[in-house]
Amino acid sequence: MSEPQPLEPTPAPSYVSGGTADLVPADAEILQTGPRPGGRGPSGPDPSAVPEERARSLWSDAWHDLRRNPVFLVSGFVILFLVAIALWPAAITSGNPLDCDLARAQQGSRPGHPFGFNGQGCDVYTRTVYGARTSVTVGVCATLGVAVLGSVLGGLAGYFGGVGDSVLSRITDVFFAIPVVLGGLVLLSVVTSSTVWPVIGFMVLLGWPQISRIARGSVITARQNDYVQAARALGASHTRVLLRHITPNAIAPVIVVATIALGTYIALEATLSYLGVGLKPPSVSWGIDISAASPYIRNAPHALLWPSGALAVTVLAFIMLGDAVRDALDPKLR
Amino acid sequence: MGRYVARRLLQMAPVFVGATLLIFLMVNVMGDPVAGLCGERRCDPATAARLKQEFGLDQPVWRQYLTYMANVFTGDFGTAFNGQAVTELMATSFPVTFRLTIVAILFEIAVGVTLGVVTGLRRGRPVDTGALLVTLVVISVPTFVTGLLLQLLLGVEWGWIKPSVSPEAGFGELLVPGLVLASVSLAYVTRLTRTSIAENARADYVRTAVAKGLPRHRVIVRHLLRNSLIPVVTFIGADVGFLMGGAIVTERIFNIHGVGYQLYQGILRQSTQTVVGFVTVLVLVFLVANLLVDLLYAVLDPRIRYV
Amino acid sequence: MRGATHARPVRPVVCAMALALAATACGGGGSDGGGDTGAVLSSSWGDPPNPLEPANTNEVQGGKVLSMIFRGLKQYDPKTGEAEDMLAEKIETTDSTTYTITVEDGWTFSNGEKVTARSFVDAWNYGASLKNNQRNAYFFEYIDGYDKTHPADGGKQTADTLSGLRVTGDRTFTVKLKQKFSSFPDTLGYNAYAPLPRAFFDDHDAWLKKPVGNGPYRVESYTKGSQLSLRTWGAYPGEDKARNGGVDLKVYTDSNTAYTDLMAGNLDLVDDVPAAQLKNVRSDLGDRYINAPAGIIQTLAFPYYDQSWGKTGMEKVRQGLSRAINRVQITRTIFQNTRTPAVDWTSPVLGEEGGYRAGPCGDACVYDAAAAKKLIKEGGGLPGGQVKITYNADTGSHREWVDAVCNSINNALDDDNACVGNPIGTFADYRNRITDRKMTGPFRAGWQMDYPLIQNFLQPLYYTDASSNDGKWSSPEFDKLVDQANAENDAARAVEKFRQAEEVLRDQMAAIPLWYQNGSAGYSPRLSNVALNPFSVPVYDQIKVG
Predict the structure, then answer these.
(1) Which residues of B touch C298 (CB under 8 A)?
(2) What would the DSSP string read from start to end of C326-359?
(3) pTM for this one?
(4) In chain B, N or C: fewer CB atoms in 10 Å?
(5) Would you say the ipTM is above 0.95?
(6) CA distance C392 to chain A (A)
(7) How high is the pLDDT of residue C269?
(8) Which class in CATH covers the domain with range C296-517?
(9) Do B82 and C224 touch (CB under 8 A)?
């Protein structure tokens, strides 16, 4: 195991059997807080003692770290590239994604068509490039929506506990119970818009409980760290404690789940389209192409390989980015 | 603790009512299911009216719901359109799916957590990178393809397994489907564990434990892992419901007549009785799983207490 | 006549022998049904969506079972599709309205009960009675008294039995129709007309759990949702005795899994080879693959209630669309020749004598981009500049061919947006939109024949207000010719009239014919003598095992 090398005072041991602080996470009031002398926020000395101009140091420190992190630079570059082709697909392909001719169905690569053709005889390269717009938009927007909504609600519930937590937890229970297929058929079948926004809205609506659960769980853990207790005891406001102490300590699982979920949202878009309630034809997206090519994996694997590859690279970039951001936010790693 | 559990159990009542009402309304919004029963030919209006009456679809929605709930409390979940009692469908499909879910969860715990610990302790090393790549493949290749490939390779080419699962669906037959079902969740569990472990590996109590001269595996399991499991447990708890109700693709590929399949059929045929019945049971599973997760928090982190 | 993906005619089942009571009622037939004539084969099956009653089963999976456990008055020849007497000794008429039917002696249900005239009359009365909710009730609508047993919308049922049916002897009964219908006897091979034993009425629930009929197989056990085991009925009195020991029908939720099981040697027969595997089928199965014509046609129907499609002059646009579809390429590439480009509105399985001809559609069904453009322009262009082909996404993988059809139209018209697919999530929703007349453009229509008659391909689909005339197309000329054909006593002259009616369809391009669907099946090396009948159902009783 790697040796911990903290550069600055670290929080008191957070594993002490017997309970230094008795918390009631779920429904939950704090019964008894045990402020510990010497408790420290992750960003440095006890917050109430910190001069105001250092208040943003956590985030600026993180940015400072990130700029020198090769993982961040590489993933950031890939993401910028994806955004660029999503905005200007014509820059790297002259083809038309809707130009399909059955006479070329399932043919392999040839000059001018490096990725070959899919089952409908459309150029796989062109469709993969054009698919980036839809897929990246769906993936990023749905993930952002889910992450923000889920972590805010879950975080608040976990932090404050009490009735609000109970109500929210039960609401997530109800949402968990809605089968995606049913939700999609009901909510999306009435939509006539051919944009991606209804699909994204649907994913946020059904996806936030998952992140909310995770965020709540990790906020409950973070809340009883001694430095948090100390900050509260010293009169720091809830907002301050949440933003400066809880968030950096609780955000890691949210980032992990959200970055992986990005890939699954892109795939979910395909499922919805397959059910006839996702993007309306003739939309072009990786998900649609992956689900169309999947049954033909024995005959035309290339039609599956390229859009899947593009999806994998995208997910990789976001997972790496998430890792880098998380590391940068973790003061113990500095 | 006892009071806490009792309170949580009481809270299940409103969730139960809320979820069933919501699902009931959703299936209702989908429209008139009778048109789908007559094939490509239009149902003649007289028969359609009779069928509606038989299924109670001619009543206002609120009355349908009340009738339904009243029946549910007497153990009558209604009948599916093929004349089979919904309870009968449940009795055949839930045990199968339950076994499948257990297999999948065991995979998640055994493989996911182990991989997570190993990669978390060896961040940036080849084993970590390797696991990341495998994770990526799993995420970007749809379950559909993973399942089909495994089925084709193990079932046809090498003949290790039967490509389809028999109606009895014993644990042995469910190993491969369970792995396929668990695959995407495996990726989550691995990465969650890895991150948690990496974060906590630098904590003081770990250093203390190491300094005390505790054996390495004891430090990892008793101190490090135990403290790192909360996000993982949360995820797995939420995953139980997804695995039980959302195994549509896996169940199709391996011909498992489980909950995912019945639910999917019910939804496509717009059978309120089937869908609400199955979802009702799933909601109960969710509620119990969540309660267990919350209780586990206290086991994993003794500072967390319930009153 | 349900759509290819959904349904197919079925045939009724009869004596249920399940419970003690029923067993007594049915007599001593229980013990003689040994499966000792050979080995048992396994075959893929889908769970029937409706209860397994003869007049209630309107799709192919339930129909498959009914055709194994029942025999009706007529039986369609598995090769030619011709209706031949089975239980009927003779069916006589002088005026094409009143028929006297004599049941052959010696037939029994597998529980020992004799098949009599009453077995038929009771079954038909049951099927026609509104209170029994039988989905195939309309098959009895030509019989006198149907409006009393099955009143149209809102009416009260005033009779339990059809006044047109009369038992005149132990083995004879008469049927009085409300109008002339010369090919009525040939429709009697359909499942809905099967005889039913008393056990069906005496203990209905028990019968449903274990149906009893008079066919070459009897039901040994039935586990809903997973398996139906049929065994050869040793004492079967008919000539088409099963040549194997029985059939285990195993429920598969995905035809691809069944195919994989076939390759792995866990299944003997798959009668629905998934589209994605068609390309590999020769290398996987060699000559153990059948691709045989079936009485199924796929068309694009139009909403004639919609102003933009209903107005005169639009037939040019429809013809133009038809000429913009490259049927040859689509059937070859997407369907791997398991579909045949359509050249009329019926099916080749009817044969020349039955009314099929190669070519009534003529040039209008042949791809020609230039002609397509010209016709559409002459017709005033596509309404709104775009056609949306509506289909349901949940069954039958329609997406692929709809996309291919649209690409073909777009290429022919040099316009990326001339045609798009418009998927609907569920079949029920799709049917509701059709019933509620909410279609705004062409939509997919599939027709599987109930019985191999040209009448069955034309009248239910295009006659004014007919039960499956989903587009509400109406032509007095067409209706008149169909009426004349039905009144014709001579079969050949009737067919000629139907052909003339078909020409009206062509002139108006009432629906665009796409292709005829074949049945496809693959089987294991254990089996031989496997064939598909014109309904694309395997001829189980002829299969030899080992």
Answers:
(1) none
(2) -HHHHHHHTSTTSEEE-SSSS-GGGHHHHT--S-
(3) 0.82
(4) N
(5) no
(6) 8
(7) 95
(8) alpha beta
(9) yes
